[in-house]
Amino acid sequence: MVEPGEEAMRQLFKFYRRRCPAPDLGGVLDLREAARHPDTVYRTRLEASALDDEAQRVGLQPASQWRAYGLNGYPGFIFIVNPFLPSGQRFWVRQCLKLYPRKPNVCNLDAHDPQRDDVWASGIRAGKSPREPRSLLEKLRWVTLGYHYNWDTKRYSAHHRSSLPVEVSALAAILAAACGFPTFCAEAAILNFYRADSALGPHVDESELDLSQPLVSFSFGCSAVFLLGGLRREDPALPIFMHSGDVMVMSGESRLRYHAVPRILDSGGTLPECLREPSCPREAAGGEAGGEAGGHAEPDPLARGDPGASATEPDAVSAADWEVCARYLRESRVNVTVRQVAAPGEAVPNTEPPPLHQNAAAIVTQQGGYNDGDAHNHDEEGHRHSKEDTG
Ligand SMILES: O=C(O)CCC(=O)C(=O)O
């Protein structure tokens, strides 16, 4: 299994990516059982007491209930065990699948078919006729929001930007402030959509101009094995479970650590009750699932008073929408990593973005013909990997 000369991160990545035989997950750190690892894990205090009302509005539990941990030897790395309300998780899943793939946001499917159909509408159709070829929703691998990350140049450009959804900025600001970054200003987000056989190779996120601000990352759906490495590829890595709703903040000394996602786990044992179909308690009355799929803008959830929901929670997900989300989540994971690109007053250069390249994406799948070896060799500099699977 271990080849001489291979860097430690890559060895571990191959180990957890292996299908046959499946790897032993006994060595993966589970922060839900932090007390079992007193040598590795310590409880960390958050700066969140004043934020409870705001937190609930973006689907978070009151900050006093969050459990946050640091890891010995990893200064600046903060892990918050699922701080989301059940309705909050459903809200964010719906936003990620239904709204954020829409234009003017950018996604992996644009390179192949700029006139593409609405991703959400294709997900609805797939549910109605299961024998249809893979839907666009299943082929979705990444979406960029705000400053659109250019996978070829690995840069952001002032010319290539759309507005970041207000709820994304609000959520990231609350999480960052709680972790000691009260001035964090969300300017870009990359959403990663993983299917059961997807992986994200080892990389460092270093394209942002201001590296003093953290990466704020949260995920929903199937659990994953996340590898937290060192500042060099050859450094050892720590495998950590990332379950639905968990939040990671990488800052300070840990901002430029290598990290990777070698494995998505079976939903069987890992999807939380609140994401299991078909239950969607206290949901809004759902109309036809396709009703809003034709490109109409969704009302701003933070500005809308939903009669079916508490005044301080985001709007509830309709039964029809939830049906599509729940079907997707059976074998998927969605990650959102939010970034501040530049320091206040710092200009992001205007670099004319080259056309999106055919091989431009973060996630590789075995189904798409890539194995873990390809995923890594692609990027000698250790930046994000550039491979695309659109099926
Ligand atoms: O999916 C994850 O948990 C990690 C995502 C990531 O590393 C990235 O977007 O740079």
Automatic annotation (TrEMBL):
The keyword Metal-binding applies. Keywords: Dioxygenase, Iron, Metal-binding, Oxidoreductase. Residues 185-342 form the Fe2OG dioxygenase domain. GO terms for biological process: oxidative RNA demethylation. Its cofactor is Fe(2+). Fe cation binds at residues 203, 205, 259. GO terms for molecular function: broad specificity oxidative DNA demethylase activity; ferrous iron binding; oxidative RNA demethylase activity. Signal peptide: none annotated. Gene3D superfamilies: Alpha-ketoglutarate-dependent dioxygenase AlkB-like. Binds 1 Fe(2+) ion per subunit. Residues 373-391 have a biased composition (Basic and acidic residues). GO terms for cellular component: cytoplasm; nucleus. It holds the Pfam family 2OG-FeII_Oxy_2. Residues 275-317, 345-391 are annotated as: Disordered. This is Nucleic acid dioxygenase ALKBH1.
